[in-house]
Design goal:
Elements (H helix, E strand, L loop, with lengths): L2 H75 L1
Length: 78
């Protein structure tokens, strides 16, 4: 194998390594961005779960108060 062929092979390998390093960099950045997005989605999910819990509690309270009013009306009628 001549020195010229060896140099061409080394240059080719060097370029492939640089391309792979760039690809790794891009993938790391994408992973970081996706992790941030996942964090935001989890925060939104937690917030929505808290809202659902609050609405459910309010609904239960309203239902109980309405039932109490109905019971009082029924007692007045009898």
């Amino acid at each position: 194998m001549s020195n010229e062929n060896l140099m061409e092979i080394l240059e080719s390998l060097d370029q492939r390594v640089e391309d792979l390093m760039h690809t790794i960099s891009v993938l790391r950045e994408e992973r970081r961005r996706l992790q941030e997005e996942i964090g935001e989605i989890q925060r939104q999910r937690d917030e929505l779960a808290a809202q659902v819990h609050s609405v459910t509690a309010t609904r239960t309270e309203v239902r109980e108060r309405i039932q109490s009013i109905i019971n009082k009306i029924e007692q007045m009628e009898s």
